[in-house]
Amino acid sequence: MEGMDVASPAFRLRLDLQLFAGEKTEPATPKKKQDARKKGQVAKSMELPAAFILFFSFLSFFVFGGFMKTHLVGMFRSVYTDFLLLSVTADNVLVLFEKLGLQILMIVGPIFLISVIIAIAGNYLQIGFLMTGDPLMMKFSKINPLEGAKKLFSMRAVVDFLKSMLKMSVIGYIVYSTLMGEREHIMQLAHLPLEEILSFTSSLVLMLGVKIGAVLIVLAVLDYMYQKYEYEKGLKMSKQDIKDEYKKSEGDPLIKGKIREKQRRMALQRMMQDVPKADVVITNPTHFAVALQYDGSQMQAPTVIAKGSDYVALKIKQVAKDHGVTTIENKPLARALYAQVEIGEAIPADMFQAVAEVLAYVYKLKGKAN
Questions:
Q1: Higher pLDDT, 50 or 301
Q2: Average pLDDT over the chain, rounded to whole?
Q3: How many CA atoms within 13 Å lie on the side-chain side of 218?
Q4: In whole angstroms, what separates CA 259 from the centre of its chain?
Q5: Which of these, 235, 232, 239, 363, lies nearest to 302 by C-alpha position?
Q6: Which of 51-55, 139-143, 272-276, 315-319 has the lowest mean pLDDT?
Q7: Which pLDDT belongs to residue 15?
Q8: How far apart are CA 257 and CA 254, in angstroms?
Q9: How far apart are the first and last CA of the chain?
Q10: Of the residues 50, 161, 226, 307, which has the fewest C-beta atoms closer than 10 A?
Q11: Where does the chain cross the membrane (predicted)?
Q12: Cβ neighbours of 199 (radius 10 Å)
């Protein structure tokens, strides 16, 4: 920016563009998302699996309630009828605990199994299958008091506080409205038998659990959308970041150009090493040169072992001259071979006649013809 007035609009515009290039305004590239996923950085709401577990657990009580009641009553009946009058011995106590353990497992087993399945499904729906140990690695930044203080007063902390207040308010309203709707039945509980009291209480609790679970699922879905927005925002990149990532993944264009140039030189050197093996070099005479080799015992047809145009053609002719390889000028054939046949390929059938005539002439010059 030498010679430019620092107060000029052009200078300010260039400065603004330079500053803008460092701002993270671009969506994350697939590579950055993949790298973040490998580190365990994914869009995930912890509220969603918990809400699913609560909702489906209470819902499962409606399905397995009768089964659980039967086994619970059977367990108490067995204790009072089969074990109450038994002698307290090690064998009797062991049998008692085995039967009680089996009964308890059968009672809570369905709920436990449903909770595990729902927890796995709730996480899988959000992030799919992911196994990584990076979040478990010891990092000193996690125990940095300054970083912890920043998190306490960050926008995320404010949002989490508001979410907690919203959940408590919604749950409180659901409980209050449900209880107020059943207040007449609640007031009459003192006049009902114990079995009806327990039946009414259990149905009321289950209804509250299902309602709260359903509302929490809605709130959890909204939380997941917010977490995904924060995740995408946190992964945003600047234009310079995208350029740097491209250079790392694809390679620096300057370095790649140098590598390609070196590869071309090496290929040219290998090709020049094969020119002395040729039986003939067919030229244009100045623009193209094609070196052919034919060994009747190993080849079904003459093969192109070197070819080039302009400077490379001159090099081929020079190497051929230095090693006594015959050079024949045939413009149409040289152009056709250069355009249609790659190095290492045999000539096509429609060129057999023309090439055979050239080789016959070469062999005749070398005294190889019959």
A1: 50
A2: 79
A3: 9
A4: 30
A5: 363
A6: 139-143
A7: 45
A8: 5
A9: 78
A10: 161
A11: 48-67, 103-132, 153-177, 197-226
A12: 12
